Amino acid sequence: MFCEKAMELIRELHRAPEGQLPAFNEDGLRQVLEEMKALYEQNQSDVNEAKSGGRSDLIPTIKFRHCSLLRNRRCTVAYLYDRLLRIRALRWEYGSILPNALRFHMSAEEVRCLKDYGEFEVDDGTSVLLKKNSQHFLPRWKCEQLIRQGVLEHILS
Amino acid sequence: MSEAYFRVESGALGPEENFLSLDDILMSHEKLPVRTETAMPRLGAFFLERSAGAETDNAVPQTFIGRFRRIMDSSQNAYNEDTSALVARLDEMERGLFQTGQKGLNDFQCWEKGQASQITASNLVQNYKKRKFPDMED
After folding, report:
1. Would you call A82 an interface residue with chain B, using a CB distance cutoff of 8 Å?
2. Which of A100, B3, B43, B109 gives 20 to 30 Å between its CA and that of A154?
3. What percent helix, strand, coil does chain A show, rounded to 5?
4. What is the DSSP letter of A58?
5. Strands, DSSP E only, in B24-71?
6. pTM reported for the whole predicted model
7. Using CA atoms in the order A8, A12, A13, A18, what is the torsion angle rounded to 10 degrees?
8. B25 shares contact with chain A (CB less than 8 Å)
9. What is the pLDDT of residues B89-126, one digit of tens each?
């Protein structure tokens, strides 16, 4: 049934004890987005057929898919927003030094270094050597600026 | 435990649910057995529990046949009874069908009593007469 994966994400967060941050379910989120893409493409094609081919019997199906798309969107946004609230709460309580266990639960971006940049300090005090062509896993918010500056290249998997 | 974490409140006590509330999303995710009034083609591929095309196509007609039979049966067997419980969960078309069945039953009962050939005043006239006396008395 549609939206099952999206509901799984919601249940996962709902089950987590107050404020605790479970691992970022990247795979689950990817599946929800894939389902949304499939629903959307099916609807695009059926809408064309309903309009030009006179297939008004497709309209209930189109509406059903549309409702599923809206629900998937709601679940995705709620999932990300609730994680945001938990991360913000953690920031308040732990300060700028987040325990490693928690950091690994957050989504990370894979980046490749495009030029020799030198030492780059990460939150827990350790530093990473950004040498040309080296690849690293860094938290998005930390490396975003360097990506914008052309120092790092975001690798999409 | 995180004291700084304030999740999105449920809108259950307010006029509408909260879009971002996990509680509201879970509460609104009911699993009800579905009866579709009309066929919804091209969904078969996504309904994993109905993988065979023939099964999917047959579900709606089978449901209709079952309901039709039950309505005919109950309408033909409820003579001079309170039928409100029987028609409560029917839609308009089904209620019309039920009434047709009841009329058939009543006509048959009339015929059995030998009243079928008896000519009576039309319902319209009878109803008008029922209204007229109270008007005249006013």
Report:
1. yes
2. A100
3. 60, 15, 25
4. G
5. none
6. 0.57
7. 150
8. yes
9. 888 888 889 999 999 999 999 888 888 777 777 777 77
